[in-house]
Amino acid sequence: MNVGIKDVARVAAVSPATVSRVLAGRPVDPDMRDRVMAAVHETGYRPNLAARRLRSRHTNTIGLIVADIRNPFFTAVSRTVEAIAYDRGLRVIFCNTDEDAAKEAMYLQLMQEERVTGVILAPTREGADRIAHVESDFPIVLIDRAAPNASCDSVVIDNAAMAAKLVVHLHRLGHRRIAGLFGTDTVTGRERCDGYRRAMEECGIPGQVVPVPHEREQAQRVIAALLEDASRRPSALVVSNSVMLQSVLRVADALELEIPRDLALTSFDNEPWMEFVGGGLSVIEQPVEEIGRTAVTMLMDRLDHADCVTRRVVLAGRFIARGSGGRGVEA
Amino acid sequence: MNVGIKDVARVAAVSPATVSRVLAGRPVDPDMRDRVMAAVHETGYRPNLAARRLRSRHTNTIGLIVADIRNPFFTAVSRTVEAIAYDRGLRVIFCNTDEDAAKEAMYLQLMQEERVTGVILAPTREGADRIAHVESDFPIVLIDRAAPNASCDSVVIDNAAMAAKLVVHLHRLGHRRIAGLFGTDTVTGRERCDGYRRAMEECGIPGQVVPVPHEREQAQRVIAALLEDASRRPSALVVSNSVMLQSVLRVADALELEIPRDLALTSFDNEPWMEFVGGGLSVIEQPVEEIGRTAVTMLMDRLDHADCVTRRVVLAGRFIARGSGGRGVEA
DNA sequence: AAAACCACAGAGAACGTTTTCCCTGCTAGG
DNA sequence: CCTAGCAGGGAAAACGTTCTCTGTGGTTTT
């Protein structure tokens, strides 16, 4: 039998209500407070969070639903969200959908049942569409993937502008055959693709967009098809994220292409190892901590201002030039 | 006001108890079952998990506490644990301690308050020591880091043997000055260090153990000190994990060392990018899915057999030879 | 000095379930 | 035909808190 608030109350010779007040930090006679605290330590009392949440009707819990935890971008954001949330006394329920809309729906349902305070969500494409129609009991902040007309608050980076930056970089280096590899399933992919297309147009060179599926085997097949014919091979690539980049590297390795001589690579996301392949890759670094922090802040803010208009925070990425393009950082 | 089980009961014209029974899948007249299900859909009822947990006294929740989610090894294990747990109808509370024993203690306390069913834990060194003395209300399964005499169930890999494998590999390639870089704060680091030491002895060459702190800046300073003096520089390294390896690469890059010509690298963990640096790195791949799966299984098993003796599962790693050492896999 | 107020403690309801207990009606066995 | 047994449904307690309401003692205000 576990020790409850009533046991503490008996030991401290006060009422359960008083124990509750002490624990909640409400004003209580110092004498009693000491007695209660002593009793808490003596009994080894630990509050039962289920009971607390049931009665108080707030769970102090946020859900964090990401599409792919193996993607270091999401790992990094998750870490930040977790750290900040716990700082603010919020618990985090962590969910990984693996880009599966059904799993995502299941998790959103679970969030309802948990009666979470709010949710931070990187939706699948279908999920993003559905969110617009469904109304949930809790506020949602979308991260990374959010259509400009989304019906929720969102925090994203300026994907189009950043993709353009990569194109311009490659163009300056003299590349004229620049292919763009983008995910088929996400808003983010489409935005980056748009930015790529427009930049290619402005540079006056024809774009070649390659839609890449999320699943690795399939992705590698698509990429192989793009690269294996030397005569039609692009000289440079804009790649949509670090996971896709790994598929590119594997295929390039199999085809014995040397980076960047046979193929110049640029990508979104900045992982430490990118410094060390192909003489250093030029990339767009996303402000992962700031994304996480902003998301939590927006969520908290939304709780206080339930019917404030929908807000969209667009953060800038950071272009990092490496390798043949010269070292350095450029905002 | 949210819809509760009573509302459903009223709509279906049955008692709340019956609704509860239907939802729990207990035997109920088919007619009533249909009425209840209809009412559930009509009202949009979602069970309140807090209430359910409070009353039923089981939370169907496991805690997963890892030391560093940025370490891809833990990311991979977490993903597996999450997937398997949800398959079995268990919720996962995910916690990241950042190698901070205080945070770890705080989280373990939280697990108590959540009344979790069990915990899977990759402890800090201090945590591992403390676990031995503390008695908790729930079973704990240690992963990755567990002293052989641990008082909990544990699932680990054969660190010493795997470290030895790396040493032997390098020795066969002709290396005689092989330094070993190991974490200072974990059982795992010490085990790998022991294996390294013994293997070096057996090869008849003097070992050079370099204790590397977890924090990146400090780690890089230590590594720089090891590598900067060309005359005393080892020709090969055994590195304890992929995070540490990144520090090594950064330092090597700054010192303009070419891998593997100036410095051969081998490491624990197998990340996709390791194929592409220094012509491919030879590594020990850990069976991450199996670790996760085994941990969950052991935890569940322990619930049924509370006073079964402590079990320790030791899994084999997989040696993957790449680069100058030749391609291929060897058990 | 009386009235009004304030601060704080205790009693008991309430949160939304599951579970226990009892009651009913049906079936089977003598 | 009567009774024992059984299956399933309803009433109400229980889970461990917080919250509301009331009461009391002391302080301020008029």
TrEMBL record, chains A, B:
Pfam families: LacI, Peripla_BP_3. The keyword Transcription applies. One of its GO terms (molecular function) is transcription cis-regulatory region binding. Residues 3-56 form the HTH lacI-type domain. PROSITE patterns: HTH_LACI_1, HTH_LACI_2. Keywords: DNA-binding, Transcription, Transcription regulation. PANTHER family: LACI-RELATED TRANSCRIPTIONAL REPRESSOR, RIBOSE OPERON REPRESSOR. This is LacI family DNA-binding transcriptional regulator. It comes from Gluconacetobacter aggeris.
